[in-house]
Design goal:
Number of helices: 10
Largest sheet: 6 strands, parallel
Distance between the termini: 19 Å
InterPro entries: Precorrin-6x_reduct
Structural class: alpha/beta
Low-confidence stretches: 133-145, 278-282
CATH architecture of the largest domain: 3-Layer(aba) Sandwich
Radius of gyration: 21 Å
Strand order of the largest sheet: 3-2-1-4-5-12
Pathway: Cofactor biosynthesis; adenosylcobalamin biosynthesis
Number of domains: 2
Pfam families: CbiJ (PF02571)
Protein name: Precorrin-6x reductase
CATH class of the largest domain: Alpha Beta
Keywords: Cobalamin biosynthesis, Oxidoreductase
């Protein structure tokens, strides 16, 4: 069976690793960064395509590689990728399965501010920071201490611009992946070198709390990416520090209605194997 696995998460790597040990299953994966390509290859994918593909491009990939099953394991916030995958598979009659991380149940706290867009998140952050306009005239570059505190951005480098367009970049601490793209993007948006924390992985509440304390964080911005995205450890750290946290909730994707969606890796892998009729290699 020829599979297309649209990757981009740690869950995708686990799925690729499990399926690559199955007889008669050939895994073609997609990733949106060179780092993602390397991870998918190391996980056992037979071939990896690098890029963000629209509907027509995905249809071409499905046809050229005789794909018999499409597994969408993209990030919960990659709604466009999921919509494209569904439209492409439906157009060609290729079966589609979705893996989606279970949602994080937010604790009840006045410090937690759930929103459904980054624009709304910025408005709340501006209120918390007491900002009425963009601080273009302020030069914070030589100041180690910010009486008003800083903003800790934990929502991915591609959403960083929402903050820098409305607030002084000097007030933003960005934790991003240790990749050239992420660091260059942060610098292009005006984030000072010392405010860029380049790290990969999920971290404990204690570690996140220390980071918030060291950078004098007044408010945290994150998104609801599920347990494997470390959402709860970020929120708990903020609560422990009595720091407000603005959480952008994942988008609802209308096209997923009626589709088979899995919340556990093992269940998805079992479903694929049952369809293939193969057994794990001994």
């Amino acid at each position: 069976m020829n599979l297309l696995v649209m990757a981009g998460t740690s869950d995708a790597r686990h799925i690729i690793k499990d399926l690559s040990t199955v007889d008669d299953i050939h895994v073609l994966a997609t990733a949106t960064t060179t780092h993602g390509v390397e991870l998918a290859e190391k996980s056992g994918a037979d071939k990896v395509l690098n890029g963000r593909f629209n509907v027509e491009e995905l249809m071409e990939i499905l046809m050229d590689n005789d794909i018999e099953l499409l597994l969408d394991v993209t990030h919960p916030f990659a709604s466009a990728a999921t919509q494209n995958a569904i439209n492409a598979s439906d157009s060609l009659g290729v079966p589609y399965l979705r893996f989606e991380r279970p949602c994080t149940e937010l604790p009840e706290s006045d410090l937690i501010h759930p929103v459904y867009s980054f624009e709304d998140a910025v408005e709340i952050i501006r209120e918390i920071m007491g900002v009425t306009g963009i601080s273009e005239g302020n030069d914070f570059s030589d100041s180690e201490n910010f009486p008003g505190g800083r903003i800790l951005h934990l929502a991915g480098v591609n959403t960083l611009h929402y903050l820098t367009e409305s607030l002084s970049p000097d007030l933003v601490v960005a934790r991003v992946l240790p990749m050239v793209y992420s660091i260059e993007k942060s610098l292009e948006l005006g984030i000072p070198h010392r405010n860029i924390v380049a790290m990969e992985g999920t971290f404990s509440s204690r570690f996140n709390g220390i980071l918030m304390e060291e950078f004098q964080i007044k408010v945290v911005l994150t998104k609801e990416s599920g347990q494997s995205g470390g959402t709860m450890s970020k929120i708990q750290a903020a609560l422990d520090q009595e720091v407000p946290v603005v959480v952008v909730m994942r988008p609802e994707i209308e096209e997923l209605k009626g589709k088979l969606v899995f919340g556990e890796v093992d269940l998805l892998v079992d479903e694929v194997i049952s369809r293939c009729g193969s057994e794990l290699k001994s």
